[in-house]
Specification:
With 385 residues, the chain is an alpha/beta fold. 36% of the residues lie in helices and 17% in strands. The chain is built from 13 helices and 13 strands. Strands 3-4-2-1-5-7-8-6 form an 8-stranded mixed beta sheet, with helices on both faces. A 5-stranded mixed beta sheet has the order 10-9-11-12-13. The protein starts with a helix and ends with a strand.
Length: 385
């Protein structure tokens, strides 16, 4: 990144000096494994206690959800492992033992501050299936309204590759959408986003990012820590999901958690770029697993991109997959690029005979119940470019 670009990003802080966390009523905080483990790779309970002390002050005045890594690290020592094992079964065994130890450590630490926690284990399936998404949303909302701090982790003890979120950074972003958070805080082992490798003596912290496109030149390909599965790339992906849905993000060092949650000039703030939508639209845009694909002609694709039209049968060239009415499907243009997602109004079996037909023809041929959009505009969400 050039010095002029870096200077421009740094100067934005003075125009947007208010921390998104300072006045937030509902916050999702994510902490990575590297912030909870010692040099030996095992769970560092003192580090966890210090973190909870920082979180507890804010949790007494705001509703807080904590998405935590560290279950596998917490299970290594009890099982006699010297480092994170390579095979899946051993990792799942460590996660099973570690989840108990990790939550017990959190329960004891928060109890010292008069706060009660509740454990919630999630898999990606809990967010891609609408009924499970609604159930998780109701449970978390109930816990928050009763003053409980939900402790969330991916259910690594039973999760298979097909059902994994990929990293707890993305999980945290989806949880922020799920609970309608006012801010997402990503705590890690670096002091924010820098214009180059933080180990470089010339590296400068980027305090404010108005649009992720502004940092396209920043090199963020370095891997995460030896005990974690993420890195800066996954944090930027999480920021992209949250900010696109109107939720500001703060990336900061876990060691500076108290200052970050107190609203000080700590870390990197990512400004929201999208509008807040309904919970259903959040789910459809970021969490839902599409069951099929609709290929649109150029006219329909342009109308959908404009954001004000329903999808009619006349604009659909073809479809792929098998789906039922009400399922999420992807809408793609002639090049195969996804432009939107939507809840389809017809089964795939019925759709085959509707393709390319106008609504008047459908009414005459099949009856008035077919004179309706394939996807209504209220059931559509545009995919960010």
């Amino acid at each position: 990144m050039s010095a002029s670009v870096s200077d421009g990003l740094a100067s934005q802080l003075h125009e947007h000096a208010t921390s998104p966390v300072a006045g937030a009523h509902r916050i999702v905080v994510k902490v990575g494994s590297s912030s909870l483990t010692g040099a030996d790779g095992f769970l560092d309970e003192l580090a966890l206690q210090n973190l909870v002390t920082a979180l507890a002050k804010k949790a007494k005045t705001s509703q807080m959800v904590l998405v935590t890594s560290g279950a596998v690290a917490a299970g290594l020592r009890p099982l006699g492992y010297e480092k994170r094992p390579a095979d899946i079964a051993s990792v799942q065994a460590a996660a099973s033992v570690g989840q108990v130890n990790l939550v017990a450590a959190y329960a004891n630490a928060f109890a010292r501050h008069g706060l009660l926690i509740g454990q919630v284990l999630l898999t990606a399936d809990d967010t891609v299936r609408r009924r499970r998404y609604d159930n998780a949303q109701r449970a978390l909302t109930c816990l928050l309204e009763q003053g409980v701090v939900p402790i969330i982790n991916e259910n690594d003890a039973v999760t298979t590759k097909e059902l994994k979120f990929g990293d707890n950074d993305r999980l945290a972003a989806l949880v922020a959408l799920l609970v309608r958070a006012d801010a997402l805080v990503l705590l890690t082992d670096v002091a924010g986003l820098f214009d180059r490798n933080p180990s470089d003596p010339w590296a400068r912290r980027i305090p404010y990012v108005e649009n992720l496109a502004d940092i396209a030149d920043v090199q963020v390909t370095a891997p995460g820590s030896s005990v974690g599965t993420g890195g800066m790339i996954t944090k930027l992906d999480a920021a992209r999901i949250a900010t696109a849905s109107g939720i500001p993000v703060l990336l900061a060092s876990a060691s500076a958690a108290a200052a970050a949650l107190g609203g000080e000039d700590i870390g990197t703030v990512f400004a929201p770029v999208g509008r807040r939508a309904s919970g259903r639209m959040h789910w459809l845009a970021h969490a839902a697993k599409v069951r099929g694909k609709l290929i649109l002609d150029d006219g329909a694709a342009a109308a959908i991109r404009a954001g004000s039209a329903s999808l009619l049968a006349v604009g659909v060239l073809d479809y792929e997959g098998e789906f039922d009415a009400g399922d999420p499907v992807a809408l793609v243009d002639g090049t195969g690029k996804q432009i939107a997602r939507g809840l389809v109004a017809f089964d795939s079996v019925d759709l085959a005979r509707l393709l390319g037909r106008n609504t008047r023809w459908l009414r005459v041929a099949y009856g008035p119940q077919y004179e309706r959009p394939i996807i209504h505009r209220d059931d559509l969400v545009i995919t960010p470019a």
